[in-house]
Amino acid sequence: MNTDPTTVATKIVTALRDEQFAAVASFFAPPLQAVASADSVQAAWAAEINKSGPVAATGEPVAETMQQGLVRVSVPVTQERGELTVLMSVDDKGMLQGFRLAPAVTAEWAAPAYAKPGAFTEEEVSVEAASLSVAGTLSVPAGSGLHPAVVLLGGGGPFDRDETYGPNKPLKDIAWGLASRGIVVLRFDKVTHTHARVANEDDFTMTEEYVPHAVAAVQLLQKHPAVDAAQLFVLGHSMGGKVAPRIAAAEPAVAGLVILAGDTQPMQQAAVRVASYLAEVNPTGANKQAVAIISRQAQAVDDPALSTSTKASALPFGFSASYWLDMRAYDPVAAAAKLHKPMFIAQGGRDYQVTIDDDFARWKTGLSAQPGVVFRIYPTDNHLFFPGKGQSTPAEYESPQHVDVAVIKDIARWVNPPKGLLARLRAVFAS
User: Fold this and answer.
1) Are strands 96-103 and 82-90 parallel, antiparallel or unpaired?
2) How many CB atoms are closer than 10 A to CB 252?
3) What is the pTM of this model?
4) Rounded distance, CA 39 to CA 43, Å?
5) What is the pLDDT of residues 123-155, one digit of tens each?
6) Residue 199 — left, alpha, or beta (φ > 0 → left; ψ -120 to 50 → alpha)?
7) Contact between residue 182 and residue 193 where contact means Cβ atoms under 8 Å apart
8) Which of 83, 154, 366, 410 is a Cys-bridge partner for 333, taking CB atoms 3.0 to 4.6 Å apart?
9) 3-class secondary structure for 364-412?
10) In this structure, which long-range contacts are made by residues 67-71, counting pairs with CB atoms below 8 Å and at least 24 apart in sequence?
């Protein structure tokens, strides 16, 4: 068997094109076998074909050496009405430790108009926790003096530090926007991006996915000479926002939270809601099948008999039972209410993944009585806080866009308010 990563990747993409899904699954290493199957690959592939048409051409594989001896290979695929990228993590035996279908990068990221690259510098850093190191980028405003600082956390999935999705980099937008306004920003690759194998471990949880490295990032900022250690904030998007209160509870140095589209509805129930929405928007057989599969898997999460012996393949997204047990026991609103810290909670009005009625309303009900908690709705924004019109769909994320400038301005003013306002805010929390 040829174990060359690019050769393996080419064989897999050819099998996908020819709809030989059992052949694709035969390359899955045991940890991936536990969470994915030929049927799940077929359902994911059918959704892509229904959206953008059959394969017209495949491009050359691009290989990148990762930690733990893995090689990440990406293969561009051109369809009749669009493009996608097949991403694979290949081990030294030619087996897949990771596999997913991702939007194609069809354009270079360009800085948003509200970013001023000359107003800050960037340096590469390493964030280490639990003996696992990930790479990050520190954006530091120019000039002397101390600055407030923010740690950025991406949403659920193996995102890089920029939360790259197709041609878009929403966390990079936020980092550059805030750094241009006098705020130090640290963003870093998720542990599941750098160390793909950890996501397939039976005892892996949401806590381990986020908390250790987020705490380490806060502690790194505490020691930086340009940072005002009394003004350290955590900004989380989507699942990053959901878990942000847990990070503040673990690290007392966190002065406050910015929660962007943080989900509060139990995620297994949200998964059914989102799948149903997509089936309504695009009522294909594959999307209807996805609703049935997700509904069955969500019932397994809700089952009181769920235990660590439940197979990940029976649960949504291939997450382990340990992951779901951790999620099921966590109430982000209740965790936030115990902090008694300032928070900025924002929601896009066109977001179908995290919604005003299912998620934002829970934040508001649980926290509106607490001083220093600000709520904002941006009516035209979707889940990535990109402005738009009409019904939001996944295809909307695949064209180059930037985070709403109004969001950037509001966060910057909240994190780094004028001196008089800052004094008044501190008086509120001292009383």
Assistant:
1) antiparallel
2) 10
3) 0.85
4) 6
5) 999 999 989 999 999 999 998 999 999 999 999
6) alpha
7) no
8) 366
9) HHHHCCCCCEEEEEECCECCCCCECCCCCCHHHHHCCCCCCHHHHHHHH
10) 67/133, 67/194, 67/195, 68/195, 68/196, 68/197, 70/97, 70/98, 70/196, 70/197, 71/5
